[in-house]
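Thread title: Can someone regenerate the structure for this chain?

I was given the following input by a collaborator and told the matching structure tokens would be attached. They weren't. Posting the sequence so someone can regenerate them.
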Amino acid sequence: MSIIIGRGKNSRRAYGIDEIALVPGACTLDPSLADTSYSIGNIKREIPIIASAMDGVVDVRMAVLLSGLGSLGVLNLEGIQTRYEDTGPILDQIASVGKSEFVGLMQALYLEPVKPELVELRIKEIKEQGGIAAVSLTPLGAAKYGQLVAQAGADIIFIQATVVSTNHLSPDGVNSLDLAQFCQEMPIPVVLGNCVTYEVSLELMKAGAAAILVGIGPGAACTSRGVLGVGIPQATAVADCAAARDDFHRQTGEYVPIIADGGIVTGGDICKCIACGADAVMIGSPIARANEAPGKGYHWGMATPSPVLPRGTRINVGTTGSIRDILLGPAKLDDGTHNLLGALKTSMGTLGAQNIKQMQQVEVVIAPSLLTEGKVYQKAQQLGMGK
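Best answer:
Regenerated them for you:
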């Protein structure tokens, strides 16, 4: 339904994850029977949770640990890991600097150039330890290092920017990355993002994307929405892009997974994103809280160190347990941030969804009071959902 903002400008209502709720159906099932697996290309994972390509979230060690648990961790190939051979002192600086000095420090640290030999080394380190080498590059980085990444043995590549499209205008003398040609030439699956609309999702699928990342600005450490004023709340964005996936599947027979990326903190958030149409989710801050995370209890976004227009900040997320606690439990916290897979399986059991595809079909209602109704004591005492 069209909403009139003013003369000459109509709009529509969009919904965030916190504004919706999932409705139980006519049947239930034991959570152990819920199949949460999904696939991107020839890579099948049991846990539909991907750790974001952020320097405080994924390093070689974390990528290997996540692979072993049945999940996936994406390494940022234009971050700290490929600019410095010894990342320990760099991460210590980021964790210890004061708030007022943070932006300047980050800009200085990320001025160190990316070293091709470290790009190759990090991929080989993951592979040698039995991990899945999932890596991320910006479109510009992909143009520079794409072939090197494939030759080094990466298993899957994520091409990420605040907004990615197939229709990009560049200044004279600057050649933008041809996404369709890149997808065709790469011998491994290429995930493209980020986007938030039906039309762009469809174009990225036609270009050959193996999966689509959905989300602009909802991340815990991201400030793009405040700096740029751009974005669509995640529930609506995921549903719109999922509709493009379903139409593309009907037209071509090819199924391109949708990955909700950003704004996802609790098990309930994951459940609601999948109910809106996602096949998997990408999360940063919940993984950054793991004892094994490289950020030492801090989390920052990929656009945070921009030398001209930072679109992120550093947040203190603390450390709350092991990566196993966070993904598989047992939960040691009461706020929905531990045992994320258990939360998803229990929700699927409650809703009667035997697999991800059935979870995408459950009834969703608009419920802005879902997280506050009856929670007076939790809020007053800062417990559970009141934190």
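Residues 234-252 form the longest helix (19 residues).
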